[in-house]
Amino acid sequence: MTTASIADAQEIAEILSVLTGAEAVPVDGGFRVKETETHWVDVNRMIFNWRVARMPKAEERSYDRHWCFAGTGFPALVRAVQAAVEWDGGDRTEPEGWNKNGQTGEWRGSRMTTAPDGTRESCDCRTCQDACTRKPGWFLPGEAEIAAESLGMTLPEFFAKYLFFEGGRCRIHLVKPHECRVEWHGDHADGYSHEAVAMAWKEHQGQVTELLGREPEAAPWRGGGLLGFFDAMGL
C-alpha cells in the first residue's frame, strides 16, 4: 500500500470512528473495529459486499465466523461497522442487519429475481444497484452486440454509453452479460474470475482496439481489498 493510500485509510478510519463509535484501525483489506478477550472483529471489503469477520487472536489471518453486508460503497461500510461495534462477538450471537450468513449461506433481504415474466426486470437488490451504478458486468465476445441491438444502438454507441442502470432499473437485464448471469452477489467464495472473460477476448483484440481507438493495455489489478475500495470512493 502506498503512503498516500495509508493516509487515506487512516482518514476513513477516523470518519468511521466518529460515525459509529468504533476504534477503527486500517488493516489489510479493510478495518479492525473491535476487540474481545479472545478475538478481533474486522470489516473487510469483498467483491460485492463488506464482510464482518471474527478472527481468533491465537490464529491470526484465519477467520472463524463471518457475515456479509450488501453493497460496496461507504453507506454499506458504515452499516457493517456499526453492526460489528454493537455485536458482542460471542459464539452464540451475531451482528444485526446482515444480508448473508457466511456459516449457513442464508440470505436476508431482496435479491434480483430471475423469474421469466415481467418481474425479471426488477432491480431492487441493493448489491446489484451499487455495482451497476459504477460499471456493467463483463461481456463475453458477441454478447455486447446482442445487448446493443436490444437498445437500438450500434456497438460503438453502446460502448460509449457504458452504464445502463437508470431510474432504478437495468435496461439490459433481459440480455445481461456473462458475469451478471453466472455471478450472484459473491456466492462463490473466491468471487468471479475476470481472467476467464479476459482470456476469451484474446482472439478479438482487433475489435477491442477499434472500440477503444487505441491498443488495449492491461491495467494494474487493484482487487477487492482496501485498494479496490479506494477506487470505488475515487480516492
Description:
It is built from 9 helices and 8 strands. With 235 residues, it is α+β, with helices and mostly antiparallel strands. It has 2 domains: 3-101, no CATH class; 118-233, no CATH class. Strands 1-2-3-4-5-6 form a 6-stranded antiparallel sheet. The longest helix is centred in the first third of the chain and has 18 residues, at 3-20. The protein is elongated, with a radius of gyration of 20 Å. The protein starts with a helix and ends with a helix.
Task: Put the structure in a nutshell.
This protein has 235 residues and is α+β, with helices and mostly antiparallel strands. It folds into 2 domains: 3-101, no CATH class; 118-233, no CATH class. 34% of the residues lie in helices and 15% in strands.
Outline the secondary-structure elements.
Blueprint: H1 3-20, E1 25-27, E2 30-35, E3 39-45, E4 49-56, E5 65-70, H2 74-86, E6 100-101, H3 126-132, H4 143-150, H5 155-161, E7 165-166, E8 169-170, H6 178-182, H7 194-200, H8 205-212, H9 226-233
Helix pairs in contact: 4-5
Mean pLDDT: 75
Poorly predicted runs of 5 or more residues:
110-121, 185-192, 221-235
In terms of quaternary structure, what is this?
single chain
Strand content: 15-25%
What count of structural domains?
2
Helices and strands, in order, run as: HEEEEEHEHHHEEHHHH
DSSP summary, beta strand count? 8
Secondary structure class reads alpha+beta
Strand arrangement within the widest β-sheet reads 1-2-3-4-5-6
